[in-house]
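Researcher: Can you fold this with protoporphyrin IX containing FE in place?
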Amino acid sequence: MTGITVIGTDGQHKLRAVFGSIAGLFIDKQRNTLYANDDSDDGSIHMFSLNETPPMEIFVGVHLYKPTLIYVDENDVNGPTMYITFPDQHRVVKWAHEAIRGVTILDNCLTCTGVWLDKDKNVYVSETVNHRVIKWSPQTNLTTNVAGQYDESGSDSTHLNDPNCIYVDQMNEGITVADSSDGTAGWNNASLVNPEAVRVDEKTKVFYVVDTYNNRIQRWLPGASEGETIVGGRDETCVDHQNHRFNSGSKNDQLSAPRDLAFDKHGHLYVSDVGNIRVQMFALIDNQPCSSTSTGHCAFGMDTNMQNDLDNELIAKAAVIFKQDIERLLLTKLSYLMPWLTPFLTQLVLCQMALFRGLHKLAPTIFPDVFDKNPRFWLLSRVQQVIDARTTSSAMTKRVDLLQLMLDTNVTQREGIVHETGLNNDEIKANVFLFMVAGFDTTSTIFAYSTYVLATEPEIQEKLQAEIDNKHGKELDYDTVTKMEYMDLFLREVLRMYPASTAAVTRVCNETTTVCGHNIHKGSVIQPDILTVHYNYDLWGPEDPNRFVPERHATKRHSMALLTFGAGPRICIGMRFALMEIKMGLARLLRHYVVLPGAHLEEGFQLRETFVIQPDAVYVKLNKRR
Ligand code: HEM
């Protein structure tokens, strides 16, 4: 995976603070701030706002002797409070919000390196050369040994060997220790060399390990016997066989002696890359599996984080846009029935807009600016911000994605002359808007229908699970998932029985003509009756089209028999993306869970028609697989 340098130098640009050395990292997710320690002799602590691009430095504590790892208590009543270790001075310092210096809370802890707090504000510290982890209670001022044996190293379950960074579960489920000198050193996926830091995703129980001397970051899924590399060391050509480890490097997909890691509120990974004296950011897309998040991120680089943030403004605005679509549906249907009405209806909407604008200009206090609060205009202004960030291009904002392709069509240079062809600003904005809307409810609706089928067809679910389990040990990536044959048949059958977006397929008749004895006039809007086509016995028999039978898709059918994504040159442009999203989501879900009927499922579901035809609710239960 390729990263972006957010602090340090990316080879061309010096980005803000250039450190003498770099060690501990911490991200305050509530305030979106990154803390980074410079652990040189004349070291420092830096705080950056991640709301700015590049991150803006908002605090620095200087002239400190080798501040190493850092924990920030985001929930302290007095504001974010730092806990910093100084291993060479054998002490831990607490640094209150806005204070000009810190206060030593623990001294005489021998080379205390890692630091973390539990939910009761007890401070946990790893004493590296004493091979143990201690806990200090601020209430009693007592220190207790919580892991390892004092001054005894070892590799059995009661000993530690040079413990480094620690992570304390906030549900009080235990401590995870990067035990840097222990285990089987090596470069394969079951081994580590000098792991110096670790984080645990408490919801998913996924471990992220800084495999320092292998110059890589490993991710361990729950129960896995080996990890997978998400950053750094790629294939065997990068192995230093003499020292049994992966080589370091300074390219954007490489690391050199990484020291610590942190995640921001979007699930992006930040790594302190010591050998290159920089902080690298990696956008881990699979930490944000929601369909709208993926569309926004993959196509436009908009980080929406809907999956983790249910109060997200974009979800709220999109919901209103859909609600308005229902209200406008009548208008749209009217224009389909009477195409000659369309110019009149368009003029009506434009006049309404002009009237609102005029009234607001005349008397702003009596008539508020409805456009300012209108979700469509809000979304469009958000899109404009992303475009502005791209067009004032710097190394950090340029990405290879759909938005960039559209922007690149805008100005082309041929034979030294600049041509302004392609899409203009308004067209680009309209396209981004269309993509966001078209990818919003469609994919998630098909996913909902799929879970309904899984819960009501247990044998089919078992077959799917058998196919997924067959790929045991393999990463569920694009290649693996596209090769799943039964998954493909299953999804086609869901799309046949539940074609979510039938109203989207419309065509205007160019010439007056007669089809099967029906006169169709030029300008008429034609909408195929997709449900009748999808349930037609002649097209889909001999198995009863009312039954869910994935195998029927193994037989070749008429090219227009499946119309869920439309057909012809204007077929849904997001089809492959949507299919991949759904298959990936289902494969990952079914690898770990069984979908069971929830309350009222036997009653089926009510359908409602918005932009798509969707179930009002599908009640399922998830049971963890053994
Ligand atoms: C399962 C999910 C989806 C379904 C069922 C679906 C369905 C459709 C349908 C029926 C059409 C009209 C096609 C026609 O007129 O022949 C369409 C068009 C379109 N869809 Fe999708 N769609 C899905 C997902 C997506 C996603 C994820 C995106 C974008 C990321 C997307 C973007 C578009 C766009 C831009 C168009 C207009 C294409 C054009 O007019 O040339 N769709 N979709």
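Model: Folded with protoporphyrin IX containing FE in place. The pocket of protoporphyrin IX containing FE is lined by residues 295, 299, 434-435, 438-439, 442-443, 446, 500-501, 504-505, 564-567, 570-574, 577-578 (CB under 6 Å).
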